[in-house]
Amino acid sequence: MLNKTGFILVFLMTLLQGFYAGFAFLDPLEFANLRGTELASHADLDWIKIYASRTLFAALIIGYLLYLRSYKILLWAALFGTVMPVTDAWLAYQSGASLNIIVKHIATVAYLLITFMVLQGVVKRENT
Predict the structure, then answer these.
(1) pLDDT per residue over 9-64, tens digit each?
(2) CB 3 within 8 A of CB 118
(3) HEC-encoded secondary structure of 38-95
(4) For residue 113, how far is the Cα from the chain centroid?
(5) Any idea where the domains of the chain sit in the sequence?
(6) Which of 115, 17, 55, 111 has its CA nearest to residue 103?
(7) Torsion angle, CA of 124/77/116/47, rounded to 10 degrees?
(8) pTM of the model
(9) Which residues contact 35 (CB under 8 A, 6 or more apart)?
């Protein structure tokens, strides 16, 4: 059951990152609004597309590691991945985003920490 839970948590993380990448490519302006930041100029749209390419890369790597069942690497990816939503929450706060958007970023941190803890249990069981 723990393996299945860990798999599902990482799979959902991969899907979400893939969705964000596609959304950022297709509608960078609306994506910036969804994330809680405003674009200073039309030229900033390029930065959203750069974000999208890096997010797609992360989704593909995480998806491949999940395919390989590399849970030990994935648990560290979940923990280190908290850097992104913490930064997103801070940037959203600085730009005056609504509390709902900031809470969404904080919820992502919680999700990643839960994923980290579940994957720790999976790795522990695999090593015994």
Answers:
(1) 999 999 999 999 999 999 888 888 877 777 777 778 888 888 899 999 999 999 99
(2) no
(3) CCCCHHHHHHHHHHHHHHHHHHHHHHHHHHCCCHHHHHHHHHHCCHHHHHHHHHHHHC
(4) 12
(5) 2-126
(6) 111
(7) -170
(8) 0.85
(9) 88, 92, 101
The closest alpha carbon to 108, from 91, 123, 86, 92, belongs to 86
128, two tokens: 């015994």
Lookup: tokens for 107: 């919820």
Give residue for tokens 């809470």.
103
What are the distances in angstroms from CA 102 to CA 28, 36, 37, 98, 99? 19, 8, 11, 7, 5
DSSP secondary structure letter of residue 14:
H
The residue to which tokens 């920490």 are assigned = 113
Token digits for 43?
């030229």
